[in-house]
Amino acid sequence: MNTETYTLGKQIATAINNKKVVKLDVLDVAQLTPLAELFIIAIAANVKQTKAMADEVEECLTSYGRIPIHKEGYQTSNWILLDYGEVIVHILDEEHAQFYGLSRLWQDAIRIEF
């Protein structure tokens, strides 16, 4: 993983942690999928918090001149996806996180601690 991707991942993780995340997984998926180098999976207590986390990430990265390539899920806010190219952010409420089990699905990925 290059320095720019690591820095971007750290900025996102910090922004999410500012909103009292229930659980945060930063996964190096570069060897498992061509989609991205990092997946960041954040679990929020409720849909209000998922939206607050996504807004915090966007606000933080916009200040660095980064905007998502794609985003979806704001309508229901139970699973918000922010695609920054090399880093894809998944923000889910607890119910949907348990149902979909993304961290379990990507259990072979290398976990990164910031």
Automatic annotation (TrEMBL):
| Record localization | Cytoplasm
Cross-referenced Gene3D superfamilies: Beta Polymerase, domain 2 (3.30.460.10)
Keywords recorded for this protein, A-Z: Cytoplasm, Repressor, Translation regulation
A GO BP term here is: negative regulation of translation
> What are the GO MF terms of this UniProt record?
ribosomal large subunit binding
Say which domain of life the source belongs to: Bacteria
Supply one GO CC term from the record.
cytoplasm
User: Which InterPro entries does this one have?
Assistant: Iojap/RsfS/C7orf30, NT_sf
The record's Pfam families line, in alphabetical order, gives: RsfS
Q: What does this chain do? A: Functions as a ribosomal silencing factor. Interacts with ribosomal protein uL14 (rplN), blocking formation of intersubunit bridge B8. Prevents association of the 30S and 50S ribosomal subunits and the formation of functional ribosomes, thus repressing translation.
Per its record, how is this protein called by name? Ribosomal silencing factor RsfS
